[in-house]
Amino acid sequence: MPDAPHTHEQVDSPAFYDRHWEHTDTAVDPYVVEKGDRILRLMPDGVRSVLDVGCGDGYLTHRIAERFDVTAADRSGVALSRLRCPTVEASADALPLGDRSFDMVFASELLEHLPAPVLAGAAREFDRVARAYVFVAVPHRENLRRRFARCPGCQLEFHIDCHHHSFDKDALARLFPRFRCVASAELGAFERATQPALERIRQRIGRRWWVWDGAKITCPRCGHDRFESPPRSLVHRAVAGAVDVATALVNARSGRSGGPYWLLALFRRTNE
Ligand SMILES: [Zn+2]
Q1: What pLDDT is attached to residue 143?
Q2: Cα(221) to centroid of ligand 1, in Å?
Q3: What separation in Å is there between the alpha carbon of 155 and the centre of ligand 1?
Q4: What span, in angstroms and rounded, lies between the C-alpha atoms of 43 and 143?
Q5: What angle do CA 36, 187, 194 make, to 5 degrees?
Q6: How far is the CA of 269 from the centre of ligand 1 (A)?
Q7: Residue-wise pLDDT tens digits, 156-192
Q8: CA distances from 231 to 108, 143, 151, 260 (A)
């Protein structure tokens, strides 16, 4: 868990997600396009109806709707206004839908954003609403510290996408104990393995935060939205360079240099 003290209300509210979807277009990312292809290939036989929870701008929703009856759910009215299918404005932990009312509940890049109580509630709702399958995409073994920025306004250190959780296949399986993983895939951009402690040094001492000029980042505590790389001296650069070397050494020793950024995992209900 990150050590950012922002509140649930600030990072898990319709207004927070509206701000995000006012300026985000996922279809311009070639890895998201590839993800759409992989999702369609992994779709099991026998599925007709799909509920897409946290549909965002609807790129993947519309890809799935090429072959399935899809209903899209999101907390953001701005996001839902971009959808061309039936929609439900709802939080993932309070879906106004009947028990077993969809063959599959699908969620891409949703679970990692949810504060812990909302995540637990969402897992219960997926179990309740899904007749047969839960299909999720999440960042795979993400080092949450890596994408931290520090707000120049209030000094809050926070994940730029407000991720609260890091998952692997076992962690996902624990969320859905009445389901079994029947298919999975890793895909997306290669993500170098990093260590939280070394990233802290890179950021706090080397002043290399996850910020680049022009990127849209909003502080979840004070709303500051002008993030630029802080000035860095030769010493700062040397520290960040040393962290790069240390990270490479740790990775060489562990034999794990990294992997694709996303994990797709398909779960099938087991108790019937
Ligand atoms: Zn701030």
Answers
A1: 95
A2: 5
A3: 6
A4: 29
A5: 140
A6: 43
A7: 999 998 899 999 999 999 999 999 999 999 999 999 9
A8: 36, 25, 14, 32
